[in-house]
Amino acid sequence: MSHNQPAIEVSRLRKVFHIPRRDPGLGGAVKALFRPRYAEKVAVDDISFSVPPGEIVGYIGVNGAGKSTTIKMLTGILAPTAGLVRVLGRDPHKERVANARQIGVVFGQRTQLWWDLALVESLNLIARIYDVGPKRYKELLEQFSYTLELGELLAKPVRQMSLGQKMRAELAATLIHEPRVVYLDEPTIGLDVVVKEKIRAFIKEQNRAKGTTVVLTTHDLGDIEELCGRVIIIDAGRVIYDGPLATIRERFGQYRGITFETARPLEHPLTLPPGAEVVGQEERRLELRFDRTRASASQVAAAVMSQLEVLDFSLCEPDLTSIVKQIYGGALSEARPA
Ligand SMILES: Nc1ncnc2c1ncn2[C@@H]1O[C@H](COP(=O)(O)OP(=O)(O)OP(=O)(O)O)[C@@H](O)[C@H]1O
């Protein structure tokens, strides 16, 4: 691979799924058997981007946006309907074996470890499958044991591990053959803050030390904040933003969310300070958003509490759904969808 060749290149990529459609009931089942009909679902709709070697890029979007489908085409599991994919210069679907040697994948919920084997035995096997030399393997095992704190986990079978332990084990297994490109799908989902931090530090270190290219899919904006200089936001199969995280932070860091738990459901409209608005409401939960340059959290809280009996409230950072909504609303005029 030459120096200026991107690690990943995707051009006009499309994936269309054909979903069998049938009328309800037995009649429908019989009819479908003889004359199957299909509905088309365009999961990835003309996506292009390229990732230089050594970059950590956040690939984000709300549920169903098309992230996993893109990753599956990048790993070679799925063939594109149209368009081009190149990973380290290869077509990942046509050259699956060669591609697999140089990539690593963590899919949040699934495991590549042997359920009943002690972690170290799984790692031994994986190292052998990927031809990791014994000396290098020993070094890596030591490094990983240190940064991922694998210590007493090495002797433990995966079935006995907690969620956070499993994820640390999974990362070790994925990186033990030193892949040049790594796809991480929700690597910190469901984990507590301490484990999240460990995992983020590990990813950062691998990237810095080895120039590993990382594509990170996550709903956790904390992961993105800490790891990614660049984000690609997709929605309904299309790229709606591709650029520095800093731009997103500047434009949206302005907004904060505040959620109230109230004694009774809201019955009348609220009077709020300028820059504050209600964005969600259900039963006894009230979600507000406010512009930090125009109102403070305490002003908003005081206004709500003077009109409603509040049991509890919490502040939150802007989430992805609200960012996507604002992009559609024109918050990033240079990145508006076509
Ligand atoms: N094998 C399949 N057959 C039919 N439709 C599919 C298939 N896989 C995905 N889809 C559909 O394609 C769209 C994109 O799905 P995809 O899994 O890529 O989204 P995602 O962004 O990864 O979502 P999530 O964050 O929920 O994982 C969804 O509407 C989904 O229902």
UniProtKB/TrEMBL annotation:
The ABC transporter domain is annotated at 28-261
Keyword annotations of the record? ATP-binding, Nucleotide-binding, Transport
One Pfam short name: ABC_tran
Source domain of life is Bacteria
- The answer, when asked if ATP-binding is one of the entry's keywords, is yes
Q: InterPro entries under this entry?
A: AAA+_ATPase (IPR003593), ABC_transporter-like_ATP-bd (IPR003439), ABC_transporter-like_CS (IPR017871), ABC_transporter_ATP-binding (IPR050763), P-loop_NTPase (IPR027417)
Q: Name one GO molecular function term.
A: ATP binding
Signal peptide positions are none
SUPFAM superfamilies registered for this protein in UniProt: P-loop containing nucleoside triphosphate hydrolases (SSF52540)
PANTHER family per the record? ABC TRANSPORTER ATP-BINDING PROTEIN, ABC-TRANSPORT PROTEIN, ATP-BINDING COMPONENT
User: What is the protein name given in its UniProt record?
Assistant: ABC transporter ATP-binding protein NatA
> What is the organism field in this record?
Calidithermus terrae
